[in-house]
């Protein structure tokens, strides 16, 4: 497949056993965003997602930004689904 993005997401050296909560949170957001933007199965299901607002962290050590992790607009004009909201969690973390 194609590379996930041009941005240096710096997740190759991620180790869940030694990572801080901040690093785990950023890792989850990076991987989730990459999946929504590049997953071939989603594209085949009619999703052509474009990020709206803040972008995913560029690395696991980025400062935490409060709020919804991701908001994406579906650029496919033939889909009834116009927006996707993403909230990534790591391990046993809960929503809310």
TrEMBL record:
Polar residues bias (residue ranges): 1-24
Region annotated Disordered, chain positions: 1-35
Protein name: Uncharacterized protein
Annotated organism of origin: Bacillus wiedmannii
């Amino acid at each position: 497949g194609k590379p996930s993005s041009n941005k240096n997401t710096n997740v190759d050296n991620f180790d869940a056993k030694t990572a801080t909560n901040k690093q785990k949170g950023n890792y989850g957001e990076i991987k989730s965003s990459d999946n929504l933007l590049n997953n071939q199965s989603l594209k085949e299901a009619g999703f052509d997602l474009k990020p709206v607002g803040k972008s995913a962290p560029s690395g696991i050590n980025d400062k935490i930004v409060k709020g919804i992790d991701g908001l994406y607009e579906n650029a496919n004009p033939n889909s009834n689904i116009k927006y996707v909201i993403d909230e990534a969690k790591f391990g046993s973390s809960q929503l809310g």
